[in-house]
Amino acid sequence: MQRIGTSTIQLDTTPAVLGFGSAAGKKEGEGPLAGSFDRVFEDVMLGEKTFEKAESALLNTALTFAMQDAGVAASKLDVLLGGDLLNQCIGSTFVARDLDVPYLGLYGACSTMAESLLLASLLVESGAATLAGAMTSSHFCSSERQYRFPLEYGSQRPPTAQWTVTGAGGAIVGALGTPTPQLRSGNSPITVQHVTIGRIKDLGIADANNMGAAMAPAAADTIERFLRDTATQPRDYDLILTGDLGKVGSALLIDLLHRDQIDITAVHSDCGILIFDGEKQDTHAGGSGCGCSASVLCSYIFKRMRQGLLKNILFCATGALMSPTSFQQGESIPGIAHLLHLTAG
Amino acid sequence: MQRIGTSTIQLDTTPAVLGFGSAAGKKEGEGPLAGSFDRVFEDVMLGEKTFEKAESALLNTALTFAMQDAGVAASKLDVLLGGDLLNQCIGSTFVARDLDVPYLGLYGACSTMAESLLLASLLVESGAATLAGAMTSSHFCSSERQYRFPLEYGSQRPPTAQWTVTGAGGAIVGALGTPTPQLRSGNSPITVQHVTIGRIKDLGIADANNMGAAMAPAAADTIERFLRDTATQPRDYDLILTGDLGKVGSALLIDLLHRDQIDITAVHSDCGILIFDGEKQDTHAGGSGCGCSASVLCSYIFKRMRQGLLKNILFCATGALMSPTSFQQGESIPGIAHLLHLTAG
Questions:
Q1: Across-strand partners of B341?
Q2: Closest by Cβ to B125, choosing from A105, A119, A126
Q3: Domain that holds residue A138
Q4: Inter-chain CB proximity B49 and A322 less than 8 Å
Q5: Is residue A323 part of a domain?
Q6: Interchain CB contact of B159 with A (< 8 Å)
Q7: What are the tens digits of pLDDT across the range A109-124?
């Protein structure tokens, strides 16, 4: 691999996403992407006794589908990278514990799908791992309780608020050309061409009901650095997909980039907008949470790439790195966004 | 780089620890390693208004010393890797925010110094980064409040309990031979030869006042895999240094390895035992927290390596990945341990 420009890493062997999997909750299963998820759980508890264990079971389901899709047993993973929104990332920890594989815990909030996939790709390209797993999840109930209010309180949500997705995604990364059931079936391999690691941007937004606005500057910074480093334009891509900016954050991202003469309107989409029908599902500004971009990327998007319907995309997952404690102490919300340039075919 | 055995990665270019720095609290500054820390703060608040902001200031101090030691400005870092024990890792987030560098957040609990240093080394060796920073911290007051009891409660601590270290460590990794002030002064370069990524081990310990016991199986697993992969013996090393097993966990580690005919007694030491005088300082089983192994490695240990007093060591930092929520929900404590093989001279 080599560094290009100031901040982008070019992967010469272009590691492949050998398999992917997703799991989602009932509400997500009633949304526009219902048919794309590997599994939709009608029961918000997934048969578990706590929200946190339900989230862990959701994540385990997504990763299991990803391993099946790649035709890989957990014992073959050289490393698994994951994290989530729960305090001390217990959703991911308990999945990794049960699999008994080398594990690197991450904390990237809702950017975790990009962070884990980015690191998995770098570790495969470098030879540190032959097979690497990347995963993350979120659960509406565990998140709301931890970050905002007890569910029973039934607090009113402002229009800028986003709805935490109950969802999870997992992907298995290996060398391009690794034989998999999907490749044998004639599907296009999905490869990682470049990655850009995000910088924390914080313009002073301190409203936990407006996470999109808090994260938009980080997305703008990362996308702009990537385009400059690769000397490419938005029109060079089929899709520039952000993680969970929602309607408010997406509008701000487009505006921020416009100021620097970059127009992404023709190719931009956001997982938080795609996953719900905002009008019918009362999700206000859109979906959010680690599981938002993870479940959308590892289902609808990767499937379209595999089918050759998307050939050249940027996936830029955004995260808001505040905690309830920092928030109560008057700190604003630091945002981050990591990017992968993915191709198919 | 190349994989050797089942789980170990050999670094062919042997990236170097170009600089390191440490900061510690008052109690740590009264312990046996007092003279090794770059800075000891008498004021537990470091002039900040909250424990969490104090921890962030402590971490910023350690990383600043590391950058000075390496002769590197923050703007030259291609990536910074860090994490801590606080919910959503806000100690590290706010350091990274202020530095405005590409940032990868980690969650490895008390194993974070090994996890961050290991990933920094892999990213440098692979060419993904020319200069990478690794950092972590803990603070007695922020940890006790979050994990155990309000400080004001003054709860009694059993003999197996450990004392969370108020401390932080930072290191800058770059290519071997990168000119630094320390190298020009004739000091030995410190290099990373091998790394082994930990697996989560959980033998069912569910006592938050006995973290050493919860983490010992993970340390045994990682050390054993490393020794097998490299076909080496404990006597091949000057020191096998665990992170924060303390007295109870260290005894268990030695016992667990003994069962597999591995005797580390002659070369084993533990940062949690080194940092306090257990008899005089009333710290029971020893120190703990991310800042324990970080502040000991990035001061006393690295200084001794630089001076040629230690030439060949294994650093194996251990982490307990539970959360107060998982604990209250009856889950046992998952442990993890990541290892680096470091040489000097």
A1: B194, B314
A2: A126
A3: 15-174
A4: no
A5: yes
A6: no
A7: 999 999 999 999 999 9
